[in-house]
Amino acid sequence: MEIINQIDEVKRCSVQYVLALNDTLNVINGKWKLPIIGSLMYGKKRFKELERNIDKISPRMLSKELKDLENNGVVERTVYNTTPVTVEYELTESGKTFHSVLDVMVEWAVEHRERTLEL
Amino acid sequence: MEIINQIDEVKRCSVQYVLALNDTLNVINGKWKLPIIGSLMYGKKRFKELERNIDKISPRMLSKELKDLENNGVVERTVYNTTPVTVEYELTESGKTFHSVLDVMVEWAVEHRERTLEL
DNA sequence: CCGAATCCCGCCTGATACTG
DNA sequence: CAGTATCAGGCGGGATTCGG
Fold this sequence. Notes:
2 copies of one chain form a homodimer.
Chain A (H helix, E strand, L loop, with lengths): L1 H12 L1 H14 L4 H8 L4 E2 H7 L5 H13 L3 E6 L5 E6 L1 H5 L1 H19 L2
Antiparallel strand pairs in A: 1-3, 2-3
The structure holds a DNA duplex.
């Protein structure tokens, strides 16, 4: 058991660990990434729909954040040749599984609150 | 199964969920929180030790971030009446369990890389 | 409709110096 | 040692305008 913990600590210390952690942080960072992901959890949406769904976001920010998420492989963008053009955004498979990360974050916070209030 | 997923979605939509998520985000945000937590994972440390351990952090930032983490119940501060004063920082119980959140973030990132490279 | 380009501001952060 | 004080710079992000 002791040796197991040491192995885990080594793993946690590795460069790979830190790099992977950064990947996840990049999906989270900024003010709008999570609201966008949250909105897309319910299915594909168009640009304007997202803009309406997410409170107070400007098209500039929405565009920038969507591009980030696309580069990170979390969101997929599809353009349809209609006039005017229609663009749809949806979560990739990885994007869909991201809720598991969020769930753990929430779980920790809830337990943390209980532990903190106990004092 | 379908009904279960709906319950989960409702849960994820609730105000409580978002608030808890924010709690966790506050523990993560900024450039220095995770390095500090990581450094304290190996045991209690004094201010100067942390400053030496964490690359390029200024005392100003270290002080501020430690104060944040203390307010969030993740770090505990102990002052000893020596001359000159000795101050030790250590993770609270919640702080120690936080690695479980980090592990899940890393796990997601690793799987995400595999899925993305497959294409 | 779907953005790109531009301008601008606040605050977060870094650097440096100083105190109990 | 363990921080605080002060100033300056950069960058995230808001507002607005314009183009395909």
